[in-house]
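Researcher: I'd like a candidate sequence for this fold, 366 residues long. If you have to choose between options at a position, lean toward the conservative one.
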């Protein structure tokens, strides 16, 4: 018979099919005592899905009551944006009624999709207070949680984002290609989340890029913000970018969402990825760059620079942008390029530590 330390742990993970959550589990082929329930399909909650998890079916008191026999504990990561504090409180109350511990990983102290913090703060009040165990990704975020809620989360690093086989292949390909003739700096505006504020860093970033030999600025954005008639069209931003691109000062690429291989191609094609955020907390994008050997220039808001010692920081938050720090950080990266990224061995060892820590937390609650 197996011992308690060998027994399987069934986790109702919210969500399950997201790369961070998958990569906090065991390294493929190794002992895996933690089983995460597949995400129920919101269109048919009786069936599971690996692709569609929004909105999360598990964050519902009735689902918890009806499925209590299928899991041992719940672990919440993302997906509660549209759920009211009252409904979240009903979820946490039902978990306690069913004797199911709750683990919450504090990824975001500030929701990057919300212009103001009040709604997310109210959700955090419920989750952080009710959770039986808390995790976060950086000491700075843990300090904030402790200061505001009187509880200290366990700090565990963000695991790799790129798959281990793919990481190794792409790093080897980049090393074999040798130094590039140009220094390519990228900013991806995506669909302009509120924390990007119409690409406020762009004018000063372009000035900084133009001061560096062989440097090229590449700006990407989705059609909804950069195509006339788009749902979130930004005419002034579109005009500025188009004029700069027509003058040969930058390269503009308007395209829809990258699938995973295309995203790895895009990031691998950059020497530096600039995060243009004015508020936020942590970044999976930063971790993908770390896997692929692409340097990151990150803002001082949040705790991006605490995620990885290789991140270069510039001063940018809701109070404004320090253009000199932006130019200084870019110049520093220009003079010290050819960073290979974290190796497969380093990322594998880190993932083992993260998986073991999650298992220890789960077992301590059961």
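Model: Candidate sequence:
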């Amino acid at each position: 018979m197996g011992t308690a330390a060998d027994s399987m742990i069934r986790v109702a993970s919210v969500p399950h099919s997201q790369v961070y959550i998958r990569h906090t589990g065991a390294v493929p082929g190794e002992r895996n005592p933690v089983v995460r329930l597949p995400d129920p399909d919101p269109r048919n909650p009786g069936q599971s899905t690996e692709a569609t998890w929004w909105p999360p079916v598990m964050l519902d008191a009735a689902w918890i009551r009806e499925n209590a026999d299928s899991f041992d504990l719940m672990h919440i990561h993302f997906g509660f944006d549209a759920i009211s504090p009252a409904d979240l409180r009903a979820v946490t109350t039902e978990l306690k009624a069913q004797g199911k511990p709750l683990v919450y990983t504090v990824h975001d102290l500030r929701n990057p999709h919300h212009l103001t913090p009040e709604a997310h703060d109210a959700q955090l009040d419920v989750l952080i207070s009710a959770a039986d165990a808390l995790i976060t990704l950086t000491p700075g975020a843990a300090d904030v949680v402790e200061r505001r809620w009187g509880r200290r989360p366990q700090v565990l690093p963000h695991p790799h984002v790129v798959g281990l086989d793919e990481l190794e292949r792409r790093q080897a390909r980049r090393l074999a290609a040798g130094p590039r003739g140009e220094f390519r700096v990228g900013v991806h505006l995506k669909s302009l989340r509120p924390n990007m504020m119409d690409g406020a860093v762009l004018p000063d970033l372009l000035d900084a890029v133009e001061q560096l030999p062989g440097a090229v600025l590449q700006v990407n954005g989705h059609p909804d913000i950069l195509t006339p008639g788009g749902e979130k069209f930004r005419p002034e931003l579109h005009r500025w970018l188009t004029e700069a691109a027509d003058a040969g000062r930058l390269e503009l690429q308007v395209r829809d969402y990258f699938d995973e291989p295309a995203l790895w191609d895009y990031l691998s094609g950059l020497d530096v990825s600039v995060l243009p955020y004015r508020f936020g907390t942590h970044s999976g994008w930063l971790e993908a760059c770390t896997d692929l050997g692409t340097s990151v220039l990150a803002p001082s808001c949040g705790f991006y620079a605490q995620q990885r010692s290789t991140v270069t920081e510039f001063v940018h938050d809701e109070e404004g942008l320090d253009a000199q720090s932006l130019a200084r950080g870019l110049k520093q990266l220009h003079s010290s390029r050819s960073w290979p990224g974290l190796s497969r061995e380093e990322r594998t060892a880190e993932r083992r530590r993260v998986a073991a820590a999650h298992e220890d937390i789960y077992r301590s609650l059961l």
